[in-house]
Amino acid sequence: MGEVTGKLRGAFFIFNLLFLGAGAGMVGVGAYVVQSMATYGPYAAPQFRTAPSLMIIAGSLHIIMGIMGLVLTFFNHKLLLLTYSVAVIVIMLLTYATAIVGFLDRPKVRATVNTLVNDTFTNNATFNAQTPLLQQLQKQFNCCDITGYQKFLSSTAATAMCAGAVANNERFIQLPVACPYYISTAITELLYKVGAISMGFGTFELTSLLVFMQNLEGAEGGSS
């Protein structure tokens, strides 16, 4: 068994530093998205938190493998590098899977949010429990009820819910539109970020893997 000679050792070290940094970035983005979705309460359905959760897992594996790669820079035996490369392939596939889940979930958001918000307004117990959250979202997005100002004008309950959101509006044309639109748009944008960023990191991992393969070739040359 041979050891990798020095010419690609520096590149290997730099790529592992980047791999470590990429992991930290993925964990940070994933945690940000999970936290952001939490502000939408039950309207960010559990299925929409799968992609950012996978992103945190993939990022954590990046960090572990980045540290291992830095160690292998100094003890980069061919067999260890081969094992490391296989692990990188697994993480790369998980990263692409995260991107795919994020992109595939986006078309489902609007219908799901519409259903959940409608259920809130048609169930008295749920409505009472979610009133603080609804008031917060109406203030955040300047939105009103399920269908917008039309229901606001004709419903006592909706009037109470939307009063804060429309307090500064003087004409009906300026009144807020329906809240589900803004909530679903915000969640869709978060999933897009997860998908796009994961795809970018997956491409980075593919580039890294090519460098690792070059190290393996160097090991073979050193043992001949």
Short summary of the structure?
With 224 residues, the chain is an all-alpha fold.
Structural write-up:
Helices cover 79% and strands 0% of the residues. The chain has helices at residues 9-38, 50-74, 78-105, 109-122, 124-141, 149-154, 156-166, 179-223. Helix 4 packs across helix 5. The chain is rod-shaped. The model has no long low-confidence stretch (mean pLDDT 79).
Uncertain spans: none
| Broad structural category | mainly alpha
Radius of gyration, rounded?
25 Å
Number of helices: 8
N to C succession of SSEs: HHHHHHHH
In whole angstroms, how far apart are the ends? 10 Å
Multimeric state of these chains?
Answer: single chain
Sketch the major β-sheet: none
Give me the count of strands: 0
Average pLDDT figure: 79
Question: Strand share of the residues?
Answer: under 5%
Helical content stands at over 70%
Shape: rod-shaped
